[in-house]
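An instance as discussed:

___
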Amino acid sequence: MSVTAPPGPRTPLERLRWAAVDGWTITRRDLVHWTRQPGLIVVGLLFPVMMVLMFGYLFGGGMMVPGVPGAGGDGYREFLMPGMFAMTMLFGVETTMLAVTTDAARGVTDRFRSMPIAPSAVVVGRSVADMLNSALGLAVMLLCGLAVGWRAGGGVGPTLLAVGLLLLLRFALLWVGVWLGLVFQSTGAVTAVQILVWPLGFLSNAFVAPGTMPGWLGAIAEWNPLSATASATRELFQNPGWGGETWIAENALPMAVVWPLLIIAVFFPLSVRRYRRLGR
């Protein structure tokens, strides 16, 4: 007696539906892990809040930002919050990398690759789960900002656009985390990435104006993709900014779109290529 395997999807529409269903299955797996390990999620959500309290109140009174009226104190917190929103998106890199490396170390990734599922399902499911996590984290940060006196004065449209730019940055950095996780496949490498994330985040305009830095260092900070998103969201939220006169500072809004798209264009195909080559 012979058994004939059911034919796979043939048309583009069938393949798309197949990929979407399998991707959502992987996403649900990650959501179930959240419910079983809520402590990790809570710590991840509270860490940026602790950063806001530390910089906003512990250091904020002594922070003076050129062009920001009322800094430090309340004026600095108005300047700080958009930068912290962007920093929260950056912190997600290590979260994504840890999830990918953990699956690889436990053999979960190999089992997924041996199953009759869409080749893109694992990567798509991982990205959807991380974006849901990031949206939750951003919502918590927005509430935290309101609690410390931050306000979005640009209206509903600009506010939604600012939130969209922040999530676009997170989506771009997500692929950096996926690629790093697939390349190193070791939970120990996450520590090295965590160490590198901090200089990348601080070397921006998230906390201080690049104009207060030495010239060469300020130029690097201005061209940091994080700085473009932070400056663009300050503009959209109508929060005080440092008012740089360089080209990159004056074009922060378009660059907040260009930088993430460039990152996606580089790391998305690298991630897909690396996943397909696992085990070779």
About this structure: The radius of gyration is 21 Å. Residues 81-276 form one domain.
